[in-house]
């Protein structure tokens, strides 16, 4: 296996580790780290993983800290010839924890492989620069697309100063949201549960005034139970309602100020169209049931740049997820 193949294999392991931080790392990004030492066996030099870690919870140790902490004392001397793989650029600033770039330098490792540069204003290449100034070989951009995809909410928030926006609706086979303007149960109990699972993974949720007044939606995660809920600490998304007194611009501003990095839009056609008209969307999830009605409220037409990324069927309902061509 050549160096490029090894780098990709280890970066995939970083991504696998990073996903474990889905619920706890927010609003920090999910990051995984693997430490590989080179050992001589006969005429060959082979790599062995001597440390692994991921960012478990915001305010606690980053992936690099946890990876170094997992290295056994007997393997400490191997760090001098080790390669550190990390899915996101090591931080270079003092936040709730010290800079990870400084920690890596202090360990005297030979090489660092970074998945992608951190878009956060206090990092943005500074961590990589610090490592190189210390004489460490740094390779950047291994599986970069996958690394950015994993933290697409974090990247959108810091690059565009707004949350990652998911438009979500359920419709009939012939494209209506209701039955001649009367409420219609389109989702099944199982797909409703999946919607509540999605809510646990996002920071905020919004509906329009009409939906709020007619349906009084709770917008909670009550149909999806997590480990946290059994302890009485169920995590519901922050709830917003758009109205004449609360504009789309105010909503985006509030999310930015409160560090809410993702937003689900569950309103009616008018609410969805207000986002689409301003180009404020990153993902669209459409659930279609195999039923038809004679009329009612039409679902919004999909933007031309919407690309299908997944198609799943549950209880005869099909859920299609669309995204923009790039993050």
Describe the protein's topology.
Elements: H1 3-18, E1 32-41, E2 44-54, H2 63-69, E3 82-86, H3 100-107, E4 111-114, H4 126-133, E5 137-140, H5 144-150, H6 152-160, E6 164-171, H7 189-201, E7 204-208, H8 209-215, H9 227-230, E8 238-242, H10 248-257, E9 262-265, H11 269-277, E10 283-288, E11 307-314, E12 317-323
Parallel strand pairs: 3-4, 4-5, 6-9, 6-10, 7-8, 7-9
Antiparallel strand pairs: 1-2, 1-3, 10-12, 11-12
Helix pairs in contact: 3-4
The residue fraction in helices comes out at 25-40%
Quote the average pLDDT.
91
Q: What does the oligomeric state look like here?
A: single chain
Separation of termini? 31 Å
Determine Rg (CA atoms, Å). 23 Å
The number of helical elements comes to 11
Instruction: Report the sheet with the most strands, covering strand number, pairing sense and barrel closure.
Output: 7 strands, mixed
What is the count of β-strands? 12
Which parts are unreliable, with pLDDT below 50 for 5 consecutive residues or more? none
Structural class by sheet pairing and helices: alpha/beta
């Amino acid at each position: 296996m050549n160096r490029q193949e090894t780098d990709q294999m280890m970066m995939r392991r970083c991504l696998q580790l990073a996903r474990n931080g889905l619920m706890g790392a927010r609003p920090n990004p999910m990051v995984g780290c693997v430490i590989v030492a080179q050992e001589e066996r006969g005429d060959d030099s082979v790599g062995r993983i001597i440390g692994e870690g991921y960012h478990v919870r915001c305010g606690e140790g980053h992936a690099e800290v946890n990876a170094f902490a997992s290295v056994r004392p007997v393997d400490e001397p191997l760090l001098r010839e080790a390669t550190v793989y990390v899915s996101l650029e090591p931080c270079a600033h003092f936040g709730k924890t010290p800079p990870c770039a400084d920690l890596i330098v202090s360990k005297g490792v030979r090489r660092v492989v970074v998945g992608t540069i951190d878009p956060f204003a206090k990092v943005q290449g500074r961590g990589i620069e610090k490592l190189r100034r210390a004489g460490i070989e740094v390779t950047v951009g291994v599986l970069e697309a996958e690394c950015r995809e994993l933290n697409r909410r974090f990247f959108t928030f810091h690059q565009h100063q707004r949350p990652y926006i998911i438009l979500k609706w359920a419709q009939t086979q012939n494209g209506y949201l209701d039955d001649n303007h009367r409420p219609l149960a389109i989702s099944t109990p199982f797909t409703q549960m999946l919607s509540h699972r999605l809510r646990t993974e996002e920071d905020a949720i919004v509906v329009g005034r009409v939906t709020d007044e007619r349906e009084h939606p709770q917008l909670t995660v009550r149909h999806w139970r997590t480990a946290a809920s059994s302890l009485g600490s169920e995590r519901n998304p922050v709830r917003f309602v758009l109205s004449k007194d609360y504009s789309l611009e105010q909503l985006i501003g509030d999310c930015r100020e409160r560090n809410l990095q993702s937003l689900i839009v569950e309103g009616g056609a008018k609410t969805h169209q207000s986002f689409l008209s301003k180009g404020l969307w990153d993902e669209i999830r459409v659930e279609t049931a195999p039923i038809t009605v004679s009329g009612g409220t039409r679902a919004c037409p999909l933007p031309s740049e919407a690309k299908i990324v997944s198609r799943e069927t549950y209880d005869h309902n099909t859920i299609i997820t669309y995204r923009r061509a790039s993050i």
